[in-house]
## 1
Amino acid sequence: MNLFLQVDPKTFWNAPHGSTELYVKLFAAFIIGIGVAVGLTFIPAQLRKWVVRFVTFGAGLFYVLFWIFPRPISRTPTDAPRGAIEGVSFWIADSQPVIMTLTNVIAGFMIGLGIYSLLRVHFAKIAKQQRDWAYSVVLVTSMFLMVVLGYGDFLQRQNPANFGLADEKNWGLINYGKDLLFDGLLQNMDAGMFSIVAFYIMSAAYRAFRARSTEATILLVTALIVMLSLMGVVEFMWSGVIDRISPNNGLVQSLKLSAISGWLKGTIQTPAIRGIDFGVGIGLLAMGLRLWLSLEKTGGEA
Amino acid sequence: MAMNEQPSAPTLAEKLQSLPKPVIYGILLVFATIPLFFSVKLPNKCIDASIDFYAQAMKLPDGCKVILCSDWTNSTRGESKGEMEALLKILMRKNIKFVLLSIADTQAPQVAKDTIREVSSAEEAHGGRHYKEFEDYVNLGFFPSGEGTIVSINNNIRSVAQGKKDFPEGSGPKDALQSPVFEGIKSVSDFKMFFLVTASSTNRVVLERLTNCPMMYMVSGVMVPENTSYYASGQIKGLCGGVKGVYDLENLMEVGINNSGPVQITSDKYKGDSIPGWPGKTNTGKGTAYYLALHFTLALLIVAVIVGNVGMYLSKRRAS
């Protein structure tokens, strides 16, 4: 039963987009949520631990059942379950979208929590005029400006009367502001920050990539072959040389850069990565099991 | 007194091993930026993963529907934007409608929409048609919980779009499920392909959870090795990686696969199967623009490693 979904026919759990009813329900849900969160802080620590364990186990159990319980095959919306097994199967399948919505909401709250934490730290820094408090002012101002201008621009573009905003000539202060902050600054700083990595790679490769041992030499030669194979001109010229030496000899042909790098990737690299993946997978399974059963003590208790 | 001893001049070996950082950075800056001013068509051998990507994309029926998960931002625009542009050109020229979503970054949907707008305008300027939001593609936006969302897409895609609004410019919010893109869609298997353009770990999130729709990935260069194992196992049907992958795609769009002509790209895998390109159209893009710069920087990296190693060899010989 899709109790929580925004489906037709309308139920208690949904409301039309933009309606007063929806906002009232959202506000009520927010207040109840805050109430539950505050209420949890008042219960004894020992009991709180069990609440966390219960919620963690319940959440994990749902996905365990989702993956291992027999699933309905070729089910149509009008199908009714026959027997208990199918009933559970249908229930799990129908509940998954609800769980998905809940996890998205919880993840959304984490963004809110991040914003709250950021503001708390930086407002405190500004109020006490601690070291580098001016940077905090820049951060908080930028954040508010981005929110205000971004949302203002979004609202303007939604209005059918402002269809001309697709053309820059019709922009106003808000649109230019958003364009400057998002496209002009944030996007380019994002790209600029990551491009710095190239300088670190170059410097690190020059200083650390040395043939100090047999293993390091093998790694070095392999890396050079793969890098050369990515250079179309080198690959083209080398293939030309190989073709001129012996166009039909399989052994000579296998000396082409693409053939060598293909062999390295297919025979050495891919199996090695698969091996690592298997190891990581088993580790994750063990860790997941420990978290699910609340056996993991590191990371703090509730 | 030892204090008055003049330090001996550094040897060649020492000099080779200790080039100042500003010099290295300066050379890299020059090598990476100057080639960007020249658009040079360089010889190239397309790799199998790119050929498969292009072939599978071209084999999609005209006017069909696909999912496009855009998980990149401008931090990797050098690679990801070129990939996205090449993919959009293929989709738009084949009139393929798509669902757009993101599970990696809050900025990603806006960055994707801007790219779609740019490619659509460029295609329109060259005789193509304008791709309209909501009509030709529907934007589901950002999902903070990627894992749960992909499971839901696999389980019941309509439930993912239920209650979601698309916000096409110049009109109010519209129910995503009312979009023509969702017409006739009952499950994810009604979509012909799931394209993932990513520069983050969402490749695994999707791979581990999506079982009812074929997938193809476009990833950044550093992600190619880990995704090659999924391509080799057949879990993903094609793989486009980094600038090299984009350049491959741009070449393939120009000449196709196994076609006659002055420039040919052949593939034994598609023997007897001629896959067309769009010769003369605006197929070149970021791949062609950046491939020369990739050459220069890789060459510089190789030279830097060789110089360092020669210096180490000389100092070892001197010491012995």
Note: Residues 42-283 of chain B form a domain with the Rossmann fold fold (CATH 3.40.50).
## 2
Amino acid sequence: MTTLTTTPDGTAAPRPVPPSGRSSAPRTLRQGGTVLAVPALVWYLLFMVGPLLAIFVIAALHWPGMLQPVSYAGLDNVRTVRDDPVFWDAARNTAVQLAVALPLMIVCAYMLGYYVAQRPPGHRVIRYLLFIPGLISTPAKAMVFYAALSPDGLVNGALEGVGLGSLTDAWLASPSTALACLIALDVWSGIGFTAVLFAARLSSVPDELGEAAQLDGAGHWRTMWTVHFPVIRDYVGVVTMLQFLWTLFGSAQHVLLLTQGGPGTSSTTLSFLVYQKAFIAADLGYSQTVGVFLFLVGLVGLLAIRRVFRQTY
Amino acid sequence: MRSSLTRRDLLAAGTGLAAAAALPALSGCSALAAADSDPDTLVVHTQLGTTAPGSPTYLKAVDRFQDENPGLKIKNLINGDDLGQVYETSRLARKEADVVMVNLYDKTLAWTDVDATVDVMPYLDDWGLRDRVLPAALSAWTDGKGRLRAFPYFATNWPVAFNRALLDRAGVDEIPTTGDALIAAARKLRAKGIAPVTVGGNDWTGQKLLAQIIQTYLSQEEARHAYSTGDFGSRGAREGIEYFTTLRDAGVFADKAQGLTSDTMTTQYNTRSAAIESAMSSALAKVPAEVARHTEVGGWPLADGAAHEHPTIIRAFTLIGFWISPNGVRKIGHVEKFLRFMYRPDTVSRFITESGRDMAVRSDTVSKGFPLVAAAQRLGSGVSEVLLPDVYVPPAATQPLITATSTSFTRGTSAAKVRAALESAYRSA
């Protein structure tokens, strides 16, 4: 049975054997390589590790405004955050958002990707269409949704058009539907892109597998989940992890553009809270404490997802 | 082998050097840095310049100023609500603009204290501009330590606009002046499918209207105390909150008011979907003619036992003012020319006639093209004034207060919960 692995090195690349009599050249080659990497390393330390450490440092400060004097606060910020109902609302909203958006997106995208990978007629066009949300900038996407969901927008117009006028609502202005609108935006913008990724990966799964399953009497649904899915299992894990991180950290943009966290705190998510507390309310210590929390959640989620989806053979 | 490696190394190093040299030129800061260090360019950080009311008039004024002062250039940096934050960031880098045009609100309240801007009182007197400013505006802009935070410029009358045509259509004969009349009017309006009072519950417009309604039972002193400290426990504050929740639960506010914004509010009023809005003069200036023709301005209806005699409006002098930054002090000669120009009667007149703005600077001009703005100016003593809370709310409480406002506008939130939400906004202050 052909065993498929995701790494392409079926055959190991031959290690460069230094020709005799020129033993000094490879050493120079390796040294030169390290030196050339130093600028990238410095950049990484400065712009990646630096801000990361800054999150932890600022979370321990009392910094009530960019120009205000800074003082040490220790764990005071943690206490403030823990006692603030807004934080817990945001945490709950983020949990709901991830619990709904992530499975929906991954499952639907996988099914779409599988369909496209079967190369139905017009599959190239479908791939482009699916990818379109990925080509639109976030503010543009948010404005499209804002216009569609506004009281005299597309959604209400469509409902009235099919005679369901009684269901019209100010979707973004209702505490009960504001978060749902955000989740819808997340799913819509992520599903096509993810589907294209899955389709690309599934295309490299040999056709024989699918054909063998169908010869044995399995329909597409069973084939999709019991044959192809295990094969690309850790790829699904990678994609889920990416979407998890994007949704967790990137929701701030959508919230800012659509509802600014309102009404009340019904659509405030943790990453938006970080932005709001830092730039709108100017309580930088609080903001970065939430940032630390978010970082830890992201880390735990990342490791958990990778573990759940690791290749089991 | 070795020689080609060296050539590649050289190429890489050369590209790196070229990139490093080109980077400052590529970065957008270069233009600003040039302007900063150019002694004949005045950098003005302003909210006017795109869609804010008064922008076209301001831009034309800047052009005229540059024509009159050859060699002196003005560079405008335009931001909206985020101007405070952008300015503070630039001040941190010591690259702030020379003159800032922004309201006294939220972050800007702290600016004079933290040396983000300078006390302009000495300049006001040196340049002989004290007589040009309305005394009420001067005292509004002066802080507790006697420092004048900025040169006052824009002001506002903030009445309630009533669309008489819509009210008549619903069978409401008179403009409501009491809470009960307002509730009755709201019922009739809803029967005709018209939203009664539209308000942006999700942003500052809701916060101001909520403050106005609460102040029905508060004197100006009590209101000042409540909004500076977050103590809404006084009898007047509690009665004011109950008045608000009564009106809200009787359906006086448009549906989903808690999620509407100032844009939705003005759209609803200007497209005749709503009959009443509480609007500041710049919003009144933008009401289209066919709606303005049927609009009357008045105050917010009173309730029994109110602390005021007449329906209330807000009158404020702390809208856009001219702040001077430490960088601006170094170009004080040019700043003086600019401010003298902006304070000139003809410049001030143009803001009144072309943009319909109310000014904190003395002027004899009356806005003919903006009937509603003129009507609001004429309200005089037929209305009572309540405070604009902006100047008293500590910066840290501003955003939480806006969130608390949205909660307050949600139907079903009890008066106790509204009070709790408002007070908790001050927790971090």
Note: Residues 120 and 126 of chain A are 9 Å apart (CA to CA).
